[in-house]
Amino acid sequence: MADEGMAVPVDFTAENPHIYTRAQWNARPPRRPAKVLKRAPDHIIVHHTATANTSDVSLSHAFSLSRYIQNFHMNKNGWDDTGQQLTISRGGIVMEGRNRSLKAIRAGDLAVGAQVLHHNQHTLGIENEGTYTSRAVPGKLWGSLLEVCVWLCRQYNLDPAQAIVGHRDYNNTSCPGDRLYARLPELRRAVAARLETSNPSQNNADNGSILPILPPLDNLT
Question: Which of 28, 56, 127, 183 is the most buried (most CB within 10 A)?
């Protein structure tokens, strides 16, 4: 993968949902396979990684981010694998997180994650790279988050007005940061508008304690 830094990332759209797989970002094997429930989630949880707001939008950085998240979740938090199902870099690159997530989404099922305490059995989590307590969300990330939410709402037949929430709506946390959280009403409206105007036929564990998703990620900037 020596050319990752020079490669042009493929944009994600709801009509052409290009997700970089765990194999592509060189994920470690999980301690055990994720549990897959034969039903849809009822909420999409928006997170931020609370890491540095890097200006590096390369594919190599995005893949490094996914490996860092997995290592932190497994080595520091003691989880079986990456907690969230999907990850979006500041460059808008969309990656599979927890094992079995992509296959489950495509089947209309839920690979149970470890991203929101006491509510992993019915939610799907999206990690958005950066810290949005006071800084604005970059356009590439926002655009991909919008498209991912359109895709998920189609796949699972969800109403964005009810389904899209922030991590703090379930747990005592500042996640996904005040700036990103304040934009969730805008996100719900934008997703709803896309669902109304687009043609769907174009598409084809809880662990008992609240642990930090990630510490500062200064070494990747």
Answer: 127
Residues 212 and 49: their CA atoms lie apart, in Å, by: 9
Domains and CATH numbers, the chain: 36-220 (3.40.80.10)
Global pTM reads: 0.90
Query: What distance in Å separates the CA atoms of residue 42 and residue 40, rounded to the nearest whole number?
Result: 6
Is 147 within 8 Å of 138 (Cβ atoms)?
no
Distance of alpha carbon 168 from alpha carbon 48, whole angstroms: 11
What is the total residue count of the chain? 221
120 and 113 Cβ atoms separated by less than 8 Å: yes
For tokens 């500042």, the residue is 174
Condensed to tens digits (0 to 9), the pLDDT of residues 101-121 reads 999 999 999 999 999 999 999
Residues 153-196 pLDDT 10s: 999 999 999 999 999 999 999 999 999 999 999 999 999 999 99
Taking CA 62 as the corner, what is the angle to CA 150 and CA 163, rounded to the nearest 5 degrees? Answer: 25
